[in-house]
Write a structure and sequence with these properties.
The complex is a heterodimer of chains A (282) and B (195).
Chain A (H helix, E strand, L loop, with lengths): L26 H17 L3 H17 L4 H6 L3 H15 L9 E5 L2 E4 H27 L2 H16 L3 H33 L11 H32 L16 H29 L2
Antiparallel strand pairs in A: 1-2
Helix pairs in contact in A: 1-2, 1-5, 1-9, 2-5, 4-5, 6-7, 7-8
Chain B lengths: L9 H21 L4 E5 L2 E4 L3 H10 L1 H21 L12 H22 L4 H26 L5 H36 L10
Antiparallel strand pairs in B: 1-2
Helix pairs in contact in B: 1-2, 1-3, 2-3, 2-4, 2-5, 2-6, 3-4, 4-5, 5-6
Classes of the chains: A mainly alpha (282), B mainly alpha (195).
Chain lengths: 282, 195
């Protein structure tokens, strides 16, 4: 029971309520920024583009007045990934690799090309983690689920399926922090009653049965909440044509900012393609 | 009045239960409790169990939806926080989403087939079936895409998936029995209706 405080390590799903220019943007622009930079990070030909995405995430974090050190805590799992990838590069080689080797012992060697591969894996993963962390810090759950609602309705044209789908998405997003809090409560409660979830026996039946006191209460509580919510909505005659929250209008300044950011992203991609790619070819 | 077939408002209840169980699956995903550690590295994942529970309690559509959401979260995780070389292949929705949707459907199928026999056996069977479908399909598609050779797939299956199936069966049995106990106390015992 080493890591009981999960909320220190999960920086996903925690909205930080500060006043900043970014927080005042409409959820549509926030999703747009996330999407644009995610595409940039994932699809640039070299790792320099992904690196630009990381820098962009840090800049966004600073403009939204969030502490930057907080972000780097979420990058811890990348250390393991980096070491594992490096290890695999020692063992295997790429067919199109004709760069010089840096170091090696006989058959096992690593070359400049493989270093760039590892670099791009790490850069892309770090970029995505930072972007998602930034996004969940500046968007409330209400905004996030609302925007998904609008997207679903726009795609499925205000039909019954659209309403049910948006209900499912909204419920899921709203319930995740609640369920996580209950999970933490139950873990601590069971631990204080002496239940250990890591039993020494290797018998899988025994292990699963030791797991029950954790899994069952969490699921039952979630189902009970769902039951209460469903009854409340049915009692209020929910269903049929739904009036949803109208999308907040984007001010002129915001449209300018959005187009500027799109232009920046496109520019970075093009620079990466035409300038960095021939240069990186070792 | 033709009210025998349509229960008013049942659509919303299914949607909310689907959302709640998907939230449980996502939460298990994000915390260390999604895995029961077993032997040196091979751990049993239990994140598909809410999909099985949803299928048993509310029907095939809900099970399929929860499975789909589990698949989407595993896709997002593979894209944003990969933890190994195999994770790269999970960015393909065919690997991550499709098998998980079928988990819900198959679990419901097995459950409704065996229901008339014995309630507990059908729950256990649904758990085992759902888990095995998950393993076979994910490993199978990875082999078809030439991501891993078939020997490793079979090895992982024998080592991991059978035990995972047993664990899933125990968890399903536990949750559904507890829920039925609670519900019949409130005089509202309902499990998936025959549709």
């Amino acid at each position: 029971m080493r890591d009981i405080n999960y909320f220190n390590n999960i920086s996903i799903g925690q909205y930080v309520d500060i006043e900043s220019p970014i927080h005042r943007l409409t959820p549509r622009s926030k999703y747009g920024i996330l999407l644009a930079f995610s595409c940039l990070v994932l699809s640039t030909p070299t790792f320099l583009g992904a690196f630009a995405g990381i820098i962009a995430a840090i800049i966004l974090q600073a403009v939204s007045k969030l502490p930057i050190s907080y972000m780097f805590r979420s990058l811890k799992p990348l250390i393991f990934l980096g070491l594992l990838s490096l290890f695999m590069q020692f063992l295997f080689s790429w067919p199109e690799d004709n760069s010089s080797t840096i170091m090696g012992i006989g058959q096992l060697e690593v070359s400049w090309y493989e270093l760039t591969v590892v670099g791009s894996i790490l850069a892309r993963a770090a970029g995505m983690i930072l972007l998602f962390g930034w996004f969940t810090s500046v968007t409330t759950e209400h905004e996030a689920s609302d925007e998904i609602d609008h997207i679903i309705v726009a795609v499925l044209r205000n039909s019954q399926i659209a309403h049910k789908a948006s209900m499912i998405a909204a419920t899921t997003i709203k319930f995740v922090p609640i369920v996580a809090g209950e999970l933490e409560d139950i873990v601590k409660a069971q631990a204080s009653r002496g239940a250990t979830f890591g039993s020494k026996s290797l018998n899988p039946l025994a292990k699963a049965r030791n797991y029950l006191p954790l899994f069952v209460p969490v699921t039952i509580r979630a189902l009970e909440r769902a039951e209460i919510l469903a009854e409340a909505m049915e009692a209020r005659c929910y269903g049929g044509k739904k009036n949803f929250f109208p999308p907040s209008p984007m001010s002129r300044k915001e449209k300018l900012i959005a187009t500027a950011i799109l232009a920046i992203v496109a520019g970075i991609w093009l620079i990466d393609f035409y300038v960095a790619k021939p240069w990186i070819r070792p | 009045m033709q009210e025998t077939k349509e229960r008013m408002g049942s659509g919303i209840r299914k949607a909310i239960v689907a959302g709640a169980l998907s939230a449980v699956s996502i939460t298990l995903f994000l915390t260390p409790f999604g895995y029961i550690p077993w032997i040196a590295g091979a751990s049993l994942t239990v994140m598909h169990v809410p999909a099985i529970i949803g299928a048993v309690l509310e029907g095939p559509v809900v099970g399929a939806i929860i499975g789909g959401i589990f698949g989407i979260t595993s896709l997002i995780k593979a894209a944003t926080a990969p933890q190994g070389p195999i994770d790269v292949f999970f960015t393909n929705p065919l690997v991550s989403i499709l098998p998980r949707v079928l988990v819900g459907l198959c679990a419901w199928g097995v459950f409704s087939l065996l229901r008339k026999l014995n309630q507990k056996i059908s729950l256990v069977a649904a758990g085992i079936a759902g888990s095995i479908v998950n393993s076979i399909l994910v490993l199978g598609i990875l082999v078809v895409l030439k991501a891993i050779p078939i020997e490793i797939a079979v090895g992982v299956f024998v080592a991991n998936s059978l035990v995972e199936a047993v664990a899933a069966a125990i968890l399903t049995l536990g949750v559904v029995s507890a829920w039925k106990g609670i519900e019949s106390r409130q005089a509202k015992a309902r499990i998936a209706k025959e549709e």
